[in-house]
Design a protein that fits this description.
four-stranded antiparallel beta sheet, alpha+beta, 33% strand
Length: 126
Amino acid sequence: MELRARPRLTTSVPLAPGEAIEAVIGAQTVSLWVVSAFSLIGHLLSGNRFRLLVVTTRRIIVVDTGRWGHEQSARVIAELPRATRLEGPSGSPTGVEHVLVVNGERLHVSHEYFGELRIADAMLAA
């Protein structure tokens, strides 16, 4: 079964020599339910920020991409060891969103990126 159904996000995060990107996963700091329930007003008032999780062969880089989407990589806000599992201890993500905690910040990953989460964790086992 092919997990990657369509082309995904891209980023311009500087990589070390020999380091390659394995997956790029979109996330945001406010629940998808809150943002969708209140539309633009909810988005503005919630303080929602978009993040990219750039999974490489050596590390996981968390990038802040601003308030309006995943298109522009602004700054690196955290780096995690590559051994970090993204699916969590409960196993494969289900439902509408999956919540990750990175440096005390809750990141909400849409179901659209569950395939990327699975790919990233599968590469750990390989």
